[in-house]
Amino acid sequence: MIIFQYILLLILFLVELATLASFTYWGFSLDKGIFLKVLCGIGSPVSIAVFWGMYLAPKANFPVSPFLQFILKVIIFTLATAALFFSGRNNLAAIFLGVSILTLLLSYLMKV
Fold first, then answer.
1. pLDDT more than 70, % of the chain
2. 10: buried, middle or exposed (CB in 10 Å: 19+, 13-18, 0-12)?
3. What's the CA angle centered on 17, arms 23 and 65, to 5 degrees?
4. In whole numbers, what is the pLDDT of the chain averaged over residues?
5. What angle, rounded to 10 degrees, do the helices at 34-51 and 66-86 form?
6. Which residues contact 99 (CB under 8 A, 6 or more apart)?
7. What is the reported pLDDT for 95?
8. Does residue 23 contact residue 80 with C-beta atoms inside 8 Å?
9. Which long-range contacts (C-beta less than 8 Å, at least 24 apart) are formed by 26-29?
10. Residue range 25-69, pLDDT digits in tens
């Protein structure tokens, strides 16, 4: 059972990294000027990472309840899915949404 929990934590960590990558990809794929591309491509993942570190990380400065943490993660993963979708990566967005929600549900139910 402990091995399954470690594997689940590893997959959840990889999903978190993929979330940051999807926001980066979205920002740099915008059809706007270079300044806006750089601002969104770097600013959006940095702001998500700061928010994650402050409220959702295991050693967060301002920890929230497990249920609110679950809801906030669902919102962030859904936004990352939307970022992939609007970047034109529809299949990847569907796969990402499925993996992220399944992993998040399992980790919430197992209290990992």
1. 100
2. exposed
3. 95
4. 94
5. 160
6. 11, 15
7. 96
8. yes
9. 26/83, 26/84, 26/86, 26/87, 29/87, 29/88
10. 999 999 989 999 999 999 999 999 999 999 999 899 999 999 999
CA atoms within 13 A on the CB side of 13: 8
Q: Which two tokens stand for residue 28?
A: 């740099």
Return the domain boundaries, the chain.
2-109
Q: At 68, which amino acid appears?
A: L
Q: Count, in order, helices (H) and strands (E) of the chain.
A: 4, 0
For residue 112, pLDDT over 90 is answered with: no
Q: Both tokens of residue 42? A: 């770097």
Which of 48, 42, 35 lies closest to 75, judged by CA? 48
